[in-house]
Design a protein that fits this description.
The complex is a heterodimer of chains A (439) and B (220).
Chain A lengths: L34 H36 L15 H10 L11 H17 L22 E4 L2 E4 L8 H22 L3 H32 L4 H6 L8 H4 L3 H13 L11 H4 L9 H26 L14 H26 L5 H29 L4 H42 L5 H4 L2
Antiparallel strand pairs in A: 1-2
Helix pairs in contact in A: 1-10, 1-11, 2-10, 3-4, 3-10, 4-5, 5-8, 5-12, 8-10, 8-12, 10-11, 12-13
Chain B lengths: L4 H23 L3 H21 L3 H26 L1 H4 L10 H25 L17 E2 L5 E2 L8 H13 L1 H22 L18 H9 L3
Antiparallel strand pairs in B: 1-2
Helix pairs in contact in B: 1-2, 2-3
Classes of the chains: A mainly alpha (439), B mainly alpha (220).
């Protein structure tokens, strides 16, 4: 497992790097830049790009087909076999539509916003391990996920930066800009309301997302995505198990809210907001938002597979299939399970009310994931391999958790009483300040 | 080590982003455009962090500053509708502009002094001071993982953590207490107390928060 680590010669004035520091994120870039590695990297970029687009196309078809199945309809069935090319047809139609720019729109920002939504959605793909050889060797050790292509050792992922998973968080926080600015730049009320909702929702749930992610990082002890996959070798090592299920559920819920998928799709609640932040968009700019939305569903599913379900790590050896392909197969199976889950959510769950959404995010998800993270940290610190000590830690944690919960409920009660008092009392008095109100 | 062409390219591109964004922040008329200029500056700084091998700082820079703080700015700008209702020629605080001038002169002097001083000292290479090199986790006989203490793929983060939560834990906690106090203070100060509880009478703004926000938003 040789990695491209810059070698620091201590005591001397200079440092020797194998390759320019910026590029040292893939074993293939070790040594001088030659043609073969360069072409392999370019092919990887191309594959990721095409995979993203085709995957999105298939995802839209999959969603429409599954939802219609659940609603006892046929769904798209005219364009291509099983209606597979329906999305392509819709895409072509969108490209040829008239591109409108509203009169009161902010021209620059209105044009910029779709790209701010679209580019981060694509970039997340680059850090997700899409496959690799993680099978067990005869001597009991596990392969580290590298494969050999044309004599070059590389990973089936575009880049493996040291901050891996933080990059995903950073990109998802940039994606907020796309939605926010789209609504603002439209110069219209409903898009603005939609984007204000979206921003509040995404910022709120990002905290729960980060806290449940912290539990995974605690168990994997690395930020690099390939490292996180590497530490989940057997089923008992999967972060789903090692973090005790709860962070997984919090992460799934928070991701659903981040993606603005049902039941958290208040951003584009059709009945209230026309179409949400993208009401004023048409043609290719609308297509970019649409593409980004569905691509985000796939990439975030990939992130969840990587974080909690071992990514390309398999449960057992599939016979007859070479090791390098096996990882990709496992990854695809797990990815499909998550995609189906999202479609299922959409088909069955009713939309939350805005205050329910905020209450759930701030008062349930964030405290629960924070408490769970503290418990995991305490167990790791004070009772690494000790049964008795771990019971003691759990006992103390339960007491502390109970006290915190009681305080929390008391605080909520006090604030509710205050709120009720401030709402009821002014209306009981006759309005006296009407003269100042007219301005 | 000689600086490669690539490193020059990265540095100057990022520096152009930082400076361009900074100029944008103070020259743009529209507050949203100014905030976007700020985002560009923050991204430029993040790129410089990556070029210096401080990957973690770069990620945190984007997540915290670009992802949370500027989003909050934009949120407030959009929600309150200051973008088309604010007249920049009116000065809410009189001494603001001269004070800003004094501050910026002081800042430029400090940075210049730091650069002049750094010119005499030994040249720091990218990643120096942060133990970038280290071993990834190794496998034991039956495939279990052994993590190398202090080293590893992301030792950069480990060192930062030891620094923050070990050596400077008191200052760190003090900062967090300060932030909590600030949040609590903001909530208390901006709260609209019911009339019989308030010490001084509140004007006509009690209870019409939502109306006020939408009115301003559609004013221009």
């Amino acid at each position: 497992m040789s990695r491209s680590v810059p070698e620091i010669v201590s005591g001397e004035m200079f440092t020797v790097f194998d390759a320019p520091a910026v590029l040292a994120i893939d074993p293939i870039l070790e040594g001088d830049l030659l043609w073969t590695p360069l072409i392999i990297v370019l092919v990887k970029v191309l594959v990721i790009f095409v995979l993203g687009l085709v995957g999105t196309m298939l995802m839209v078809w999959f969603e429409r087909k599954v939802v219609s199945g659940m609603q006892n309809r046929v769904g798209p069935n005219k364009a291509g076999p099983f209606g597979l090319l329906q999305t392509l047809a819709d895409g072509i139609k969108l490209f040829f539509k008239e591109d409108l720019l509203p009169n009161r729109a902010d021209r620059v920002v209105f044009r910029l916003a779709p790209f701010l939504a679209f580019v981060p959605a694509f970039l997340v793909w680059s850090v997700i391990p899409l496959g690799g050889d993680f099978s067990q060797n005869a001597d009991g050790t596990f392969n580290d996920g590298t494969v050999t292509i044309f004599g070059e050792v590389t990973r089936l992922q575009l880049a493996d930066p040291p901050v891996g998973i933080l990059l995903v968080l950073a990109l998802s926080s940039i994606a907020v800009y796309g939605i926010m600015l789209a609504g603002w730049a439209s110069g219209s009320k409903y898009p603005l309301l939609g984007s204000v909702r979206a921003t509040a929702q995404m910022i709120s749930y990002e905290a729960a997302l980060g806290l449940s992610l912290a539990a995974v990082l605690l168990s994997s002890r690395t930020l690099s995505t390939s490292g996180i996959v590497f530490t989940q070798q057997r089923f008992v090592d999967w972060n789903l198990v090692t973090t005790g299920l709860l962070p997984f559920f919090v992460f799934v819920i928070a991701t659903t809210a981040e993606l603005n998928r049902p039941p958290f799709d208040l951003v584009e609640a059709e009945q209230e907001l026309v179409g949400g932040f993208n009401t004023e968009y048409s043609s290719i700019r609308f297509a970019l938002f649409f593409l980004a939305e569905f691509m985000n569903v796939i990439t975030m599913s990939g992130v969840m597979v990587t974080l909690f379900l071992g990514g390309p790590q398999g449960l057992f050896d599939i016979p007859l299939i070479p090791g390098w392909l096996e990882g990709t197969l496992w990854f695809l199976v797990k990815l499909l399970a998550f995609l189906y889950m999202y479609v299922w959510f959409r088909a069955t769950l009713p939309r939350l009310r805005y205050d329910q959404l905020m209450d759930f995010g701030w008062k349930v998800l964030i405290p629960v994931s924070l408490g769970w993270f503290l418990l995991l940290a305490a167990l790791r610190e004070f009772a690494a391999d000790d049964q008795v000590a771990s019971f003691r830690v759990i006992g103390i944690s339960l007491i502390i958790g109970g006290i915190s919960l009681a305080l929390f409920v008391a605080a909520l009660n006090v604030s509710r009483k205050n709120r009720e008092r401030s709402v009821v009392l002014p209306s009981a008095e006759p309005p006296v300040t009407t003269s100042k109100g007219a301005n | 080590m000689t600086t490669t062409f690539l490193e020059y390219l990265v540095f100057f591109a990022a520096a152009a982003m930082v400076l361009g964004g900074a100029i944008g922040v103070i020259t743009m008329r529209n507050p949203v455009h100014a905030a976007l200029g700020l985002v560009m500056t923050l991204f430029g700084v993040a790129v410089q962090f990556v070029a210096q091998e401080a990957h973690f700082l770069a990620a945190v820079q984007v997540i915290v500053y670009a992802g949370a703080i500027v989003v909050l700015f934009l949120f407030v700008i959009m929600l309150l509708g200051v973008d088309n209702a604010m007249d920049l020629s009116i000065e809410p605080i009189r001494v603001q502009r001269p004070l800003a001038g004094v501050m910026s002169v002081g800042l430029v002097a400090l940075v210049t002094a730091a650069i002049v001083k750094a010119d005499d000292s030994a040249v720091l290479q990218p990643g120096a001071g942060l133990d970038v090199a280290g071993a990834p986790p190794t496998q034991g006989a039956s495939g279990e993982l052994n993590f190398v203490a202090g080293g590893g793929h992301d030792s950069n983060i480990r060192q930062l953590a030891t620094n923050l939560y070990g050596d400077h834990v008191f200052a760190f906690e003090l900062t967090s207490v300060l932030l909590v106090v600030a949040v609590a203070g903001t909530v208390v100060l901006t709260r609209k107390w019911p009339r019989h509880l308030a010490e001084r009478p509140i004007g006509d703004d009690a209870g019409d928060v939502v109306d006020g926000a939408t009115d301003n938003g559609g004013a221009g």
